[in-house]
Amino acid sequence: MLRKRGIACFLILLLLAVCGGGCIPGDSHVDEEKDPHFQRGRNLASSQDFPGAVNEFEKALETNPHSAAAHFELGWLYDTKINDYAAAIYHYERYLQLQPNSQRAQSINVKERIRGCKRELADAEFPLPNDQNLQKVVDRLTAENMALRQQLDAVRAQQQQGANIVAAQTRVSTVSYSQQQQPARSANLFRSRVHIVKERETISSIAAQYGIRISAVLEANPRVDPRRLRVGQALNLP
What we know:
Layout: H1 2-20, H2 29-32, H3 36-46, H4 50-63, H5 68-82, H6 85-98, H7 103-108, H8 110-125, H9 131-193, E1 194-196, H10 203-210, H11 214-220, E2 234-236
C-alpha cells in the first residue's frame, strides 16, 4: 500500500514538472498561433492588408492577453509596415517579457529592433537638420539680407537726395530774396543820404528831423548858405 502511494506521489511530481516546463500543448507558443484571429491576421498580412492584420492580432490578444506570438506580430507590423514606432516598442517589450529566452527573440534580435524603433521615434520628434537643406536655408537668408540692405541703401540715397534738393531750393530762395531786397535797401540808403528842402524848412529843423547835428549837416553841404535855403534844394545828409 505504501509502495503504491509512493508511486502515485512520484507520478504527480513528474506531471507537475512537465506542466511547469511548458510541455502541455495548450500553453505552448504553437498553440497561440492556432487562434483563429491569429491565423486570419497572418493571412491578411500576407495579402498586404496590414491594418486588417493588426485588427485581427489585437483580437487575438483580447482572447489571450498573454499571447507572446500576437505581441510579436503586432510589434513587427507597427515597426516595418505602419511605422508606429511607439506601438512597436510596446509590443516588442511585451513579447520579451512573455518569451525572454525564445529562439525567435534571439534570431531576429528583438532588442536591436527596439533600439531601432527608439531611434526612429527620436528622429521623428527631433529631426536633425540636413546639411544640404541647412545650406540652402543659409543661402536664402543671405540673399534676403542682401536684398534688404540694397533697399535700405536706396531709401537712404533718396532721402539724402531729397534733403540736398530742399537745401538747394532754400539757398536759391535766400539769394533771390536778398537780390530782391538789395535795390530797396540801396534806394533807402540813397533816399536817406539826400534831403529835398521843403517850404519853411531850416537847417536846424532838417537836422532835428533826422536826429543829427546841425554842424554835421553843414559839413556835408559846405557850399550851402543855411540862411538862404531854397525850396527844392537838395541837401546831403551824413
